[in-house]
Write a structure and sequence with these properties.
- The protein folds into two domains: about 15-145, no CATH class; about 160-260, no CATH class.
- It has about 260 residues and is mainly alpha-helical.
- About 65% of the residues lie in helices and about 0% in strands.
- The chain has helices spanning about 10-30, 35-45, 50-70, 80-85, 90-115, 120-125, 130-140, 150-155, 165-180, 190-210, 225-235, 240-250, 250-255.
- The radius of gyration is 20 Å and the shape is globular.
- The chain has 13 helices and no strands.
- This is EDS1 EP domain-containing protein.
- InterPro entries: EDS1_EP (IPR041266), SAG101-like (IPR044603).
- It holds the Pfam family EDS1_EP.
- One of its GO terms (molecular function) is carboxylic ester hydrolase activity.
């Protein structure tokens, strides 16, 4: 009888690095075309998007096995760190790889989820288990989003990945709230709830910008965020004045020179 092959993350690591490099290229290529890679993938208008799907699914399978391994085989080590440490890969490298993977890849899964117009609430209804597990592990090691920006974050903001991997899920829900608020068929309760959700999302975006924790790619000319922003301003008016002032100066934000009150 053939023995079940034991998953060894180290042997597949180089292949995963190549796949991540391809996604980095896709991100840069999208930006050069004045659109973020989230919107580019959601629109799925290029043959390269099919390749992206293959790479993201392979990466997801790899990380699913990594986070599941300690649960499936607890007798070989209580933590992922111990397995990788003895394989010659130190914990800080694993932590960086996991964080980078989630921030790069989860937005693509969010884009795929919301391609279906009827879908809602990705975080509770569509989010894969391994993304939740990775977030729990990383939260113990990294500073919270609410922490203040430092000079290094400001200097590097043009090239960062948004710190909250679920940013686009929050955005899509805000987009849906705009539709409810502007629809003549929505009830008074739906309109009030939608307005509250939009105000909350605006505060969330303000917090991310203040902490230099969101990628400037959301401000690209063809970004769905900027298209949505026009509608948001019309619907909420003075409720979004604080955020409006910041977004007007998004070029300064991209250069790390935007000052916050």
């Amino acid at each position: 009888m053939l023995k079940r092959q034991v998953f060894n993350p180290s042997t597949e690591l180089n292949d995963m690095k190549i796949r991540m490099a391809y996604l980095e290229w896709y991100k840069k290529w999208s930006k050069d075309n004045k659109i973020g890679y989230y919107d580019n993938y959601k629109n799925a208008s290029h043959t390269s998007d099919l390749e992206i799907t293959k790479h993201m699914k392979a990466l997801a399978c790899y990380w699913e096995q990594i986070v599941d391994e300690p649960e499936k085989r607890p007798h070989v080590g209580a933590s992922l760190y111990s397995r990788w440490h003895f394989a010659g890969t130190n914990y800080s490298r694993w932590h960086f790889a996991g964080t980078n993977y989630q921030r790069m890849i989860e937005p693509l899964f969010i884009a795929e989820y919301y391609k279906e117009d009827h879908r809602r609430d990705y975080i509770n209804q569509g989010r894969a288990k391994h993304f939740k597990q990775l977030e729990q592990r990383q939260f113990k090691e990294t500073e919270k989003l609410a922490s203040g920006p430092n000079n290094l974050k400001k200097q590097n903001v043009a090239s960062i990945l948004t710190e909250d991997p679920c940013f686009w899920a929050h955005f899509e829900e805000a987009r849906i709230s705009c539709k409810f608020l502007s629809s003549t068929e929505s009830s008074i309760g739906e309109k009030e709830s939608s307005k509250d959700n939009l105000i909350e999302f605006g505060n969330y975006v303000y917090s991310l910008m203040k902490n230099y924790a969101v990628s400037p790619e959301i401000f690209l000319p063809q970004s769905s965020f900027m298209q949505w922003w026009k509608e948001y301003k019309e619907l909420l008016g003075t409720y979004c004045s604080r955020l409006t002032d910041l977004i007007k100066d998004h070029d300064k934000y991209a250069n790390g020179k935007l000052e916050f009150p």
